[in-house]
Amino acid sequence: MLKKKKERSAEIPTGSLADIAFLLLIFFLVTTTIDTDKGLSLTLPDKGQETKVRSQNITNILINASGQVMLDENQVQVNEVSRRVRELLAQNPNMIFSVKTVRDTKYDIYIDVLDELKKANATRISIAEPEQ
Fold first, then answer.
1. CA–CA separation, 68 vs 100, rounded Å?
2. Is residue 116 a contact partner of residue 85, using CB atoms and an 8 Å limit?
3. Are 81 and 69 in contact (CB under 8 A)?
4. CB 112 within 8 A of CB 70
5. pLDDT value, residue 21
6. Which of 11, 47, 56, 119 qualifies as a FRET site for 22, CA 20 to 30 Å off?
7. Do residues 124 and 95 touch, judged by C-beta distance below 8 A?
């Protein structure tokens, strides 16, 4: 007597698949950290507000179109800016650093100089309008 083979159905149970997907989604939402670096925090003056600053409290940082950085008439490399700024801050903690560029200055060099100022803990930074 031959037994009749039972046909097995080839089904994948999908009832719990949605539950597993939502559990994974919740797991990744809860465990993922979001980068909270907010970049540069700037305090902008009110429109038309003008503040007088003594010239001895200002250091001019000029960046030209070819990426050369001038720190008070002295050319410095970008990676040397933080060291020079720390020295200036040690001499005068009220020092304001005025960063000025020309229109054709590459953006990455400008950001590198601002990062060097941040690395040197310079908190008083003035961003001047680019030269025409």
1. 12
2. yes
3. yes
4. no
5. 92
6. 11
7. yes
DSSP string across 53-108? --GGGEEEEEE-TT--EEETTEEE-GGGHHHHHHHHHHH-TT-EEEEEEBTT--HH
Which token pair is 10? 């080839």
Q: How many CA atoms lie within 13 Å of 59's alpha carbon, on the beta-carbon side?
A: 24
CA distance 12 to 19: 15
User: Using CA atoms, how far apart are residues 44 and 61, in angstroms rounded to an integer?
Assistant: 19
Residue 5 structure tokens: 């083979």
pLDDT tens-digit profile, the chain (132 residues): 566 777 777 877 777 888 899 999 999 999 998 877 777 667 777 888 887 888 888 999 999 888 899 998 889 999 999 999 999 999 999 899 999 998 888 889 999 999 999 999 988 888 888 776
Residues 130 and 103 sit within 8 Å (Cβ to Cβ): yes
- Residue pair 113/69 in contact (Cβ under 8 Å)? The answer is yes
Indicate the pTM of the whole model.
0.63
DSSP conformational letter for 32: P
